[in-house]
């Protein structure tokens, strides 16, 4: 792909195709990517996919808003027409599932949530492995993409997607409250608990801590606690949420919400948690860095100029926040235009275009882009080094890696809910949840 052609844009609903280009070199769907000239559309005469049409299905997401308007540049360089369809998250998953189940050859390229839908899509044979494609053009520099982000999109040793949006677990805090109380920014989970306790003042409607408390949503944020204590959801293929490390992490998370959280934490997903923090009612919040605008945007937050950011507090194993791919691009296994589809993905995720989309506030996965000051100007200055350190320390998943993700999240989340509601026997709850998670794993293994 011509290095001068870079693209960003805004979410447009149906079509972004112009400049068809002539020629009709229709590459067979099963041709080896090693035999294509992917990435070499630098000359007008060098358009091996001219005349092909690629259907791109995306989520209604800021990344889509940052890539669509410059698709005409890609079309002009390659002669490939791009048809764009845009859906809300749940509609997107439903649409893809219906089309793939029916054996549809479209869409050619699709945006998806690797940790939520990836294993289902891959296990059903709906995703074309991308490993060989990434090796065709050395200038694409696949090694520049964060290893933990790639880990998120890798299933059974195969690359199922290319990361486009990443996020990490971080600590949000009130600078003014810590300064007034003479408290240092917590560097460990024990320090976080102590600081939350000190700043908790329910009589004044000021609470020490908030995070997601709903059973399923909390699991992705609980992960950073579990990893930092040295645990995991699944270890060596076996459920491991009843280990001492996992139980300690779930107890810490649940206790913070039970003892120092605002009313209604059991009903809180991220919008409610950020809402309480942004209204100035909470001292500490742990959640994804990608949601930072909800804490500092003057239109959403009363305390935007008082918000600080810190590395996720360390547990017994150190600071091990999640560093995951929230959204990725992949190719339909039944697509008849796989090479043209890869040309589009390669273009959209090259260094130049990741820079452009990141400048629009979309946290990407390329190390070189995070090292480029031009890519971080729209991010809070204090947050950037924390993101970079979290990328280096991060773990590439935030929930149990199974096909029935929702069922597994419910099993794990139930333990934390027991803690929040005051159940004293956390180990018994964890043992029960572990058995349920193991049954889900065993079911996967039989397929």
Automatic annotation (TrEMBL):
Coiled-coil portions = none
Q: Which Gene3D superfamilies match?
A: Periplasmic binding protein-like II
Among SUPFAM superfamilies, the record links this protein to:
Periplasmic binding protein-like II (SSF53850)
Q: Which residues form the signal peptide?
A: 1-20
What CDD domains has UniProt attached to this entry?
Answer: PBP2_TMBP_like (cd13585)
Keyword tags: Signal
Q: What is this protein called?
A: Sugar ABC transporter substrate-binding protein
Native organism? Paenibacillus nasutitermitis
């Amino acid at each position: 792909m011509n290095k001068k052609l870079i693209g960003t844009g805004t979410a447009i609903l149906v079509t972004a195709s112009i400049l068809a280009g002539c020629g009709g070199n229709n590459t067979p769907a099963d041709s080896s990517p090693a035999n294509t000239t992917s990435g070499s559309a630098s000359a007008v005469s060098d358009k091996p996919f001219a005349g092909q049409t690629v259907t791109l299905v995306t989520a209604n997401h800021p990344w889509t808003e940052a890539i669509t308007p410059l698709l005409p540049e890609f079309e002009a360089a390659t002669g490939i027409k791009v048809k764009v369809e845009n859906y809300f998250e749940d509609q997107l998953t439903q649409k893809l599932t219906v089309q793939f189940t029916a054996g549809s050859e479209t869409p050619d390229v699709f945006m998806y949530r690797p940790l939520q839908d990836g294993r289902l899509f891959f296990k059903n044979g709906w995703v074309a492995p991308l490993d060989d494609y990434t090796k065709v053009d050395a200038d694409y520099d696949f090694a520049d993409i964060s290893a933990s982000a790639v880990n998120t999109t890798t299933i059974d040793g195969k690359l199922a997607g290319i990361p486009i949006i990443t996020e990490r677990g971080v600590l949000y805090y009130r600078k003014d409250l810590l300064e007034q109380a003479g408290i240092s920014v917590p560097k460990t989970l024990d320090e976080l608990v102590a600081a939350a306790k000190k700043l908790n003042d329910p009589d004044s409607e000021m609470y020490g801590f908030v995070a997601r408390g709903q059973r399923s949503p909390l699991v992705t944020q609980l992960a950073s606690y579990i990893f930092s204590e040295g645990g995991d959801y699944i270890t060596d293929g076996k459920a491991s949420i009843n280990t001492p490390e996992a139980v300690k992490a779930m107890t810490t998370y649940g206790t913070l919400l039970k003892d120092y959280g605002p009313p209604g934490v059991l009903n809180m997903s991220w919008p409610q948690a950020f809402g309480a923090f942004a209204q100035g009612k909470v001292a500490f919040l742990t959640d994804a860095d990608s949601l930072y605008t909800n804490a500092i945007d003057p239109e959403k937050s009363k305390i935007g100029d008082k918000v600080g950011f810190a590395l996720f507090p360390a547990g017994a194993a150190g600071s091990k926040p999640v560093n995951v791919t929230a959204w990725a691009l992949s190719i339909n296994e039944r697509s008849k235009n796989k090479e043209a589809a890869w040309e589009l993905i390669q273009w959209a995720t090259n260094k130049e275009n990741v820079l452009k989309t990141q400048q629009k506030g979309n946290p990407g996965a390329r190390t070189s882009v995070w090292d480029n000051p031009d890519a971080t100007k729209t991010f809070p200055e204090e947050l950037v080094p924390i993101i970079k350190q979290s990328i280096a320390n991060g773990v590439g998943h935030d929930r149990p890696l199974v096909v029935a993700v929702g069922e597994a999240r419910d099993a794990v989340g139930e333990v934390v809910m027991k803690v929040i509601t005051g159940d004293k026997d956390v180990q018994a709850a964890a043992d029960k949840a572990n058995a349920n998670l193991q049954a889900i794993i065993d079911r996967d293994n039989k397929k």
